[in-house]
Amino acid sequence: MKYIIVTGGVMSGLGKGITAASIGRILKNKGFNITAIKIDPYINIDAGTMNPYQHGEVFVLKDGAEVDLDLGNYERFLDIELTCDHNITTGKVYLSVIEKERRGDYLGKTVQIIPHITNEIKERIRRVAKKSGADICIIEVGGTVGDIESMPFLESMRQMHSEEKEEDIAFVHVTLVPLDTQGEQKTKPTQHSVKELRSLGLQPDAIVVRCKEPLLADTKSKVALFCDVPVSAVISAHDAQDIYNVPTLMEQEGLSDYLMQKLKLTPKEASHEWDELMGKMASINREICVAVVGKYAHLEDSYISINEALKHAGIECGCRVKIDWLDAETFEKNPDAVNMLKKYSGILVPGGFGVRGTEGKILAIKYVREHNIPYLGLCLGMQLAVIEFSRNVVGLKDANSSELANTDHPVIDLLPEQENIRSMGGTMRLGNCEAVLTEGSLASKLYGDNHLIERHRHRYEVNPKYILQIEAKGMRFTGRNDHRMEIAEIPDHKFFFSSQFHPEFRSRPGKPSPPFLAFVKAALD
Ligand code: GLN
User: Fold this and answer.
1) pLDDT score, position 467
2) Catalytic sites, residue numbers
3) Number of separate helices (H) and strands (E) present in the chain
């Protein structure tokens, strides 16, 4: 097993996750099997209980793990499926060490950060890497070097460095070269962050430098000199047009050759899939504009997988999908504002929790249903479509979800198995579940099959008591898992498709998600 450890310096938000995923991709393009691990030094067991407004989207894996959005980047860039073990947090590490202590596994010993916590970290990494069967395991250490929380993880990396053979482990440090007021590239922050890294006993093999414009030769030499790496190991990671251009950029900078040399790897059979994708992206010559009506309208990171899934579908159709992020509360304050929706080629309502903005989303859904504008509803976006239809077509004026209000007509209600659950972490209906599709439905056409598997994250569902009443008025539940409604569509509409699951999580560049592809096609029409 070869390990590539990616650390970050200077500040957060430099795109360490994209860098780690891109490093994986350029090596995958050389024929290697890649897996990836994200270390998040926070105390939370997982991202499931965190606010997407602060931490970005909660990504859901096939096994139901609720994880950091970077795992989504790994899955998309590397076209792999990961599990909960690929996201290591301080919470998980301490929880298992404390459980072992209570069980008596360390009997007689004082349990300490070194060696017990660091051993637990290393064991987890090695176990996951081995189980994956990959040739190379990329490990991204979240946070910025110098943070108190990441210390035990960086110490574990230091120990791994001395335990593994020199050719089996490489360190890549991601930093920033800012411009001064005269527009000159400044290397001091990078020098300082490498100094900090060295004080922990770690020396980077390569430095990936984020910057606005390509790094000048002089700047590269300076970084190389002060940070003690060859000039060829200083990689200019200047702003790219799109995140999917980053691997190509790193390849051009020579990073895969450098890493293969360091890790004594000879390339296997090259794959050209990524180049083909780049070719398709370069030939895009049309643009459509869709609106996402959400709660965190000014924070794209909260809906990153939706953004990517729309992009994947767009690439397939040869068009750029421009997204306007609309705040649902605007429509609550001013219901006439929904008229602005007519300028969009399609409207998407994403998943969400809590009542804020839901009445605004319902107004938006009413507008698109009545004006035959393509609609894609995801999870809460399906539940609200059912509520809107029940209120305005079926005639149940106070129809609502029991998550959102006390009502006589809870057309969306708690899943029966959720009734006695009080604890919040990891307790929803999560991960891969199957749905059986109605023959001849839009759903079965999109998936080209009579069943599907998609990822879930919800506590509420369509209340089975109302199904006949709703279907009698023209909304159809064309995907089902036993008594659970997985898909709601309106056959009379130009394109009205909504799902209880989140198809965005399984979308990949080059393999767009079927509902997203059909939505973009309908929008193009
Ligand atoms: N809040 C809704 C539920 O729990 C929808 C969840 C979602 O959109 N992910 O069922």
Assistant:
1) 97
2) 379, 502, 504
3) 18, 21
- Regarding whether 465 and 326 lie in a shared domain, the answer is yes
Same domain, 71 and 173: yes
- Which pLDDT does position 10 carry in this prediction? 84
Q: How many Å apart are CA 523 and CA 525, to the nearest integer?
A: 5
Work out how many domains the chain is built from and give that number.
2
The segments of the chain whose pLDDT lies below 50 read none
| pLDDT the model gives residue 416 | 86
Which of 392, 386, 393 has the alpha carbon at shortest distance from 403?
Answer: 386
Domain final residue, candidates 216, 245, 277: 277
Domain shared by 45 and 183, yes or no:
yes
* SS3 label, residue 319: strand
Query: Same domain, yes or no, for 147 and 63?
Result: yes
Task: State the pLDDT at residue 298.
Answer: 64
pTM: 0.95
Q: Whose CA is nearest to atom 9 of ligand 1?
A: 351
Residue 312 token pair:
């994947």
**Residue type, position 186, single letter:** K
Query: Same domain for 441 and 323?
Result: yes
**Which tokens hold the place of 424?**
């919040």
Q: Which residues pair with 47 in a beta bridge?
A: none
How far apart CA 521 and CA 525 sit, in angstroms, is 6
459 lines ligand 1 (CB under 6 A): yes
Q: Give dist(CA 486, CA 38) in Å, integer.
A: 31
- Ligand 1 atom at shortest distance from the alpha carbon of 350: 8
